Amino acid sequence: MNWIRTAVFLTVASVISAVLFWSLQRGLSESWLTVGVHPEVLDELDASLQDQRRLAELDPENETVYRREFERRAELMQRLRVLRHARADVVRRYQQILLAIFGFTVALVIGGWMWRQRRQELRLEALREALTELARGDSEVRVAEAGRSRWRHRVVGRDLIGRIAAMVEETSRVMTSHRRRLKALENLSAWQESARRHAHEMRTPLTAARLELRRLERLLSSDEAHSVSAGVVQELDRLGEFARRFTSFARLPAPRRVRRELGALVRDIAATFEGAWANLHLGVAPCREPLEAEVDGEMLRQVLVNLVDNASLAMAAEARAGTEADRLGAVEIRLHRLGDVVYLDVSDDGPGIDRSVRSRLFEPYTTTRGIGEGMGLGLAICRKILLDHDGELELVDTSERGTTFRLTLPVASESSQEPAQNVPHLEEP
Amino acid sequence: MRRAAGGASIGTVVALFWTALVSVSTPLAGLPRLEMEGGVLVLRSLPPILADEEVRSHLETGLTTTLALRLEARASTGRVEGGAVVTIRFDLWDEVFHAAAVGAASPPRRLRFQSYEDLETWWHGLDLEVLPATSANNTLTQARLVIDVVPFSAAEAQDTQRWFSKTLDDAKTSGVDDASAQQTSDALSRTFRLMMATSIQRRAIRVFRYEPEIVRSAEEPP
Fold first, then answer.
1. B63 shares contact with chain A (CB less than 8 Å)
2. What is the pLDDT of residues B8-45, one digit of tens each?
3. How far apart, in whole angstroms, are the C-alpha atoms of residue A155 and residue A123?
4. Cβ contact, residue pair A78, B195, below 8 Å
5. How far apart are CA A144 and CA A165, in angstroms?
6. ipTM of this predicted complex?
7. Would the pTM count as exceeding 0.80?
8. Fold of A258-422
9. Do residues A236 and A210 lie in contact, with contact meaning Cβ atoms separated by under 8 Å?
10. Where do the structural domains in chain B lie, given as residue ranges?
């Protein structure tokens, strides 16, 4: 109904403007031609023709010249006379052209307006659907386009609807990210609780076994008994280390976040561990701007060392397999900022991660190493650290040419603590 | 009965309208005559339309006045149409009239007259073949003659169209300094000029209608 009312209004408005335009332009369009073919102009030309004739009579020697001039003027006069005869047609055609231009312009304006209205309606509809999805708690909501197959309209834009759509997308993105993070934290909490129980269950009998072994050592003083006892102690120590790792995963402390310039921090870490891995070179790509984030430097160091360590182990395994025995690998850390987040990309040129473990890479106890070589807690701990920093740890790319992990950290807000230049480097060894 | 009465009244209205039209547009002089001559229908005693004030004033402008004569008649075979054209142009320098008459069955006749009076005399005595020789000519029962007075020739119209288009182009070129703007509007401008120039069309300034008298020779059957 509203649509019909608008259409009627537009039609009436167009007709009124056309009538007004017609009546106004009539006076204008007639006048210019009337001036051009005014009888006075013709009379003057006629008089000038008579003058030429008289001149020819008075000066017969130059008759040719006068005649030529006479004919030129006569030609002009005749054209003006033809124009005078056709004046009504010319004026009518001129008015028709003006009216056609006016009509075309009006049609263009109305068409454009109607198209815009329709577009806005479609975009609003898309926005409404997106909001419904958002309210339903669906995964990441996109409101990129509205309309059907042929005429699709971008919903996100610079106008009000576009800005709202962008906000909806952003909200959805944040919600999805939070949901994912929450789920990961819940999973990790469950794993941590499980690890804590395992560690507790293991520690009690281990302590008792150690005490009993010491008593046994005192009772049996032979060399053979001491030798057997040392072997048992070694195994018990391994079990103890196993339990300690469980404990360290279960009791991962909350980060003590301080505002730091990440470029400097990463360069410090790289310099400290420069010679730690014999089979690779660790480098930091230069960063164009200072990137500040609130981080626990010690934990960030732990994460970076863990990632580089994993790369080193993978390269060593590759060397053992004999494919590239003498190769010196490379790990590079690149920092860059996009909006309110800082990315630390840790890339190596190792053999890549096995396809079978990629999907559960950050789950605890996921490892590609042999039994006794690792518990598969490193990446789970690293991710937990990043999540505790309101960030994320992701596997960005992996292939036989290398692997890239991305650490995401929020940029330090203006109101956060001063940079850490003024506080002591607690995490430095 | 009512239908017959209605038909009669429509016929009366049409007849009255035609009579009124003819009486308004026809000068008071005598009717032109259609005569058979060697099987060809010849129009004689042309009405003195050159003396008409509007036509007379136009004759000496230097433009070519075209007198287009159209004949419609009824014959035993049905409706027949014929015509002829007479053009008159006044030479402004020499002050003489150039006239040409083109009939339906004879080659064009070109003549030169020193004065308007000579021209008028020639016009009045002019025999124009308006229908070529056909057997139907003898059976004409009713004829209508329409003479359109067109103020300028097709050549003059075309010449003026070209000149007008060029004048508009000159006006546009002198009004626009920016070369790129000129280039952009060029296509539109050409279309505009073409539309404006082609609006110059030949139209009759006067239309005369007659019902010529059909004169049959004694030896020819009706």
1. yes
2. 455 555 555 555 444 444 444 568 988 888 778 899 99
3. 5
4. no
5. 8
6. 0.77
7. no
8. Heat Shock Protein 90 (3.30.565)
9. yes
10. 31-152+202-215, 156-197
